[in-house]
Specification:
30% of the residues lie in helices and 22% in strands. The structure holds coenzyme A (COA).
Length: 152
């Protein structure tokens, strides 16, 4: 359980947080649960065996649980020294807009801060900039742009 100020704020919000809500930093969460929560927001289904490897190779993995149901997830990759990149930030649609995404991000950034990584980056899906700005993320002011090379 998290008892930080951010938790307290959402404890008093309109939609109550699930009474059995807890957060895990364990990389060994069932890959089927990760697959399923990603599918719940329309993302393509990745193979569980590949998810397991990706989680093991991640710097930090955070999941939020309502008892035995995974309701939030996020992870970060990186070198633990210079930089980290956040991936797969997701809250189950039935639990969105209740502060859970905020708490998941808070937990992930807290773990990244233990390594004192100076630069954390992410790719914001269209319409999610406002969510990430709350944590201090911004488009690079000097015009540096993220670029992709996808292997098809
Ligand atoms: C983006 C997402 C993780 C946010 O999770 P959430 O639990 O709904 O967010 P929260 O309830 O913690 O929201 C915290 C604050 O951010 C705001 N917020 C939430 N989603 C937002 C969005 N897409 N754009 C702008 N602000 C947003 C909320 O209104 C809330 O503000 P408040 O404190 O003033 O009420 C969730 O909507 C989601 O899983 N979306 C689908 C997957 C996705 O797009 N992930 C991001 C990939 S880059």
């Amino acid at each position: 359980m998290v008892l930080s100020g951010i938790w307290k704020r959402y404890e008093n919000s309109k939609e109550p947080l699930p009474p059995n809500l807890f957060f895990s930093h364990n990389k060994e969460v069932p890959p089927e649960d990760v697959q399923e929560i990603c599918a719940s927001v329309g993302w393509s289904r990745r193979e569980p065996a590949l998810i397991t490897r990706a989680l093991q190779n991640s710097v930090a993995v955070v999941s939020a649980w309502d008892d035995k149901i995974m309701i939030g997830f996020a992870r970060a990759t990186g070198d633990k020294v210079f930089n980290a990149t956040i991936w797969d930030v997701v809250v189950r649609p039935s639990h969105q807009r209740r502060g859970i995404g905020m708490l998941v991000m808070h937990e992930l950034l807290k773990e990244l801060d233990t390594y004192e990584i100076p630069l954390v980056t992410l790719y914001a899906d269209p319409g999610t900039d406002g969510f990430y700005r709350r944590f201090g993320f911004m488009a690079d002011p000097s015009g540096v742009r993220g670029m992709f090379r996808e292997k098809l």
